[in-house]
Every structure is written in C-alpha cells, then in structure tokens.
Design brief:
Radius of gyration: 18 Å
Distance between the termini: 23 Å
Largest sheet: 8 strands, parallel, barrel
Strand order of the largest sheet: 1-2-3-4-5-6-7-8
Bound molecules: flavin-adenine dinucleotide
Length: 287
Amino acid sequence: MKTTDIFKKKRVFSFEVFPPKRTMPIESIYNTLDELSALKPDFISVTYGAGGSQSSYTIEIASKIKKDYGIESVAHLPCLYLSEDEAKNIIEKLSREGIENILALRGDRVPDTEPEKRFGYANELISFIRGENDNMNILAACYPEGHTESANKIDDLRNLKRKVDSGASHLVSQLFFDNGYFYDFLEKARIAGIETPIEAGIMPVINKKQIERMASLCGASLPVKFLKMMDRYGDSPEAMRDAGIAYAVDQIVDLAANRVDGIHLYTMNNPYIAKRISEAVRSIIEH
Ligand code: FAD
C-alpha cells in the first residue's frame, strides 16, 4: 500500500529504524523488528547510509517488514553518491520486492569522498524515480526550521515545492523540539501550495550525548523547557530517559490536538522507548 492511501483513512503513526552496519549480520535487527511491529505502526521506514550502495540491508529489511510482519514499509534512498545505473537497479529491486514507497533524499556529504555527478539534489532523484516507475509512491524530507545549508527559509520552501512538483506526495519532517516551528512551517507550506500530507518527526531524547550530537547535526532549536530538563536530569540515566519520553509524549499530544497529518517516531531502534510512547499516545492519535 502507498503511504498516501493510509492518510486518507486516519492520522498516521509511523516509525523509523536504521539497518545494522554491514559488518554486523542482518539478523541483529530481527528482535527489534519483532518488538516494534507488535506496536502496529502504520508503516516503518528504513534509513540508508549516506555513502550509497554499501548499506544495501535497507532493501532486505524493508522487504522483511512488509512480507513477514505485514506492515507497510518505506525504503530511504540518498542520491549524492548514486550513479544512474545504481539508482535504476535499486528502484527495480524495490519494485520486485513489492515495496511501493521510497523516501528520496539527497543525503549528506561523506568527508574525503567525491559524490557521483548524476544527482545533486533530491528533486532530481524524485524526477528520475517518476520516470522509471510511475507506480512508486515518493516521499521527501522537509525542515520546519529550514535545512542547515539553506540561506533562508523562503529558498528552502521553494526547494521543497520543487520536490513536490517533481512527484513527492508525502513529506516527513526533520526532528524538532518546539512545536511552534512546525505549525509555522505547516502554514507557510500550505500557503505555498503544498497540499501533500506532512508528518511531524519526533525524536525522544533519552540521554545527554544523543542531544549534543543530534542538535548540532540537524540544527534543531532547544527550547528553555527542554534545556531545563537536560540540566536537571541529564546526569541520571533513568530520570533522563523518563523525562525524554514525557517530553516526546507532550509534543505528540499537542500535535495531535492541532490535527497534524501524522507523527513519525525516530525510534533509534529502541523498542522500549517506542512502546512507552505508543502506549501513551495511541488513543490520542486515533481520536
Ligand atoms: P534536498 O531536498 O536536495 O535539499 C538539500 C539542500 O539543498 C537544502 O538546503 C535545499 O534548500 C537545497 N536545495 C534543494 N533542491 C535544490 C535545487 N534544486 N537547487 C538549489 N538548492 C536546492 N540521510 C541519509 O543519508 N540517509 C537517510 O536514510 C536519511 N533519512 C532522512 C529522513 C528524514 C525524514 C530526514 C528529514 C532526513 C534524512 N536524512 C537521511 C538526512 C538528509 O539526507 C539530509 O538532511 C540532507 O542534508 C538533505 O537531504 P534532502 O533530501 O532534504 O535534500
């Protein structure tokens, strides 16, 4: 099923997982998938290493989620390091596996590695996928606070519109900790004529190290309420974990009350956290 069809029926609650490194056996993620699938998300998306084809577990895992667990899956595909032939092969392989959803991305630059020249931006990959396979549902990333490389939010929004005009029909947002940025972005996206479902990306922060890395990588603002929580509980693993879960739940309750299209939970392959959050918000999201 295409993810866009799920939005026609309900508010969506979905998960993101990342594949094990190629040096690990693929089976190392199976327990995580068992536990996450028991929470019955509307779909699970599987990330893809920025460097390109070495992360081919993505397709196997997306395929397993769909075939063995009966849950819709989305395969991420960053394009900066992809040649046209590689992109073509991946699209064909996904199609053979019955996977109908691709999250088309540019990806980030890998230090000391020259990108392929074929795809410079996500919109170019989106157009390519459209040309190769008209039946594929294409998702794209969006940035409530603007993409870190973008000079300003207006240019970033124009580039987002380009992705939608090229064929993206469902957007998933970067993580954020202040819902105000998401509402502001949503309003501007709708004014700009973007009519696709837009899912809010939520990352529960359960330890101090995680946030220091994530926030500097993706440029998410940290509200005072969040900083106070980190300051107060950051040195106590259990209290920080519970505070991080409560913060994410609070964000989701507010987003659902404001009738957002869906919530995409960055699970970090942690079923315990996903379970606690799912149990806390299920009836609220479905209301
Ligand atoms: P683009 O949409 O191409 O945008 C990149 C930058 O270029 C932006 O500043 C934009 O404003 C600008 N731009 C876009 N198009 C044009 C154009 N035509 N001309 C000029 N400027 C333009 N990375 C991975 O490696 N693997 C993953 O699995 C992965 N999953 C992700 C999932 C989500 C939900 C999100 C939000 C991000 C994910 N990322 C992943 C990270 C993503 O690859 C990076 O954020 C990357 O820097 C941008 O990717 P993009 O597809 O949004 O790029």
